[in-house]
């Protein structure tokens, strides 16, 4: 599967908010599973930070990067596996009943 087609599947999931299994092959050109596998492989290979750096460099070189109107926010993308934290998470379990003895 060509990289561009797999990338189209990844972008489709991000833009539409659908599950990987709901990616329409007729629209994207490949299955959601194929796109997900490529995303996994590219993530493990460190592609995304390098791509981000290359994109910023290209935008700077052409004068199209205006950091005055920039906001960084990832709240619109779900973190299904959570994230790293140095703080212990409080328990959500029901507190044990007091002893009657």
If you had to describe this structure to a student in words, what would you say it looks like?
The chain is built from four helices and no strands. The longest helix has 15 residues, at about 45-60. It has helices at about 5-15, 25-30, 30-45, 45-60. The protein is mostly helical. The relative contact order is 0.09. Helix content is about 45%, strand content about 0%.
What are the main properties of this structure?
46% helix; mainly alpha; 4 helices; 101 residues; 0% strand
Helix tally? Answer: 4
What share of the residues does DSSP label as strand, in percent? under 5%
Question: Unreliable segments (pLDDT under 50, ≥5 consecutive)?
Answer: none
Distance from N terminus to C terminus (CA atoms, Å) equals 68 Å
Rg, Å, rounded: 21 Å
Shape category: extended
Report the helical percentage.
40-55%
> What's the story with the biggest beta sheet?
none
The strand count comes to 0
Order of helices and strands: HHHH
The computed structural class is: mainly alpha
Q: What is the average of the pLDDT values?
A: 85
List the helices and strands and how they pair.
Layout: H1 3-16, H2 25-28, H3 32-44, H4 47-61
Task: Give a brief outline of the structure.
The chain is mainly α. It contains 4 helices and no strands.
């Amino acid at each position: 599967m060509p990289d561009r087609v797999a990338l189209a599947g990844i972008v489709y999931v991000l833009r539409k908010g659908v599950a990987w299994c709901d990616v329409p092959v007729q629209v994207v050109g490949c299955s959601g599973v194929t796109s997900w596998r490529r995303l996994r492989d590219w993530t493990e290979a460190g592609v995304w930070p390098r791509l981000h750096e290359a994109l910023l460099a290209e935008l700077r070189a052409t004068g199209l990067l205006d950091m005055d109107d920039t906001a960084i926010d990832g709240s619109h993308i779900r973190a299904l596996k959570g994230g790293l934290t140095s703080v212990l998470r409080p328990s959500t379990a029901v507190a044990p009943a007091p002893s009657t003895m």
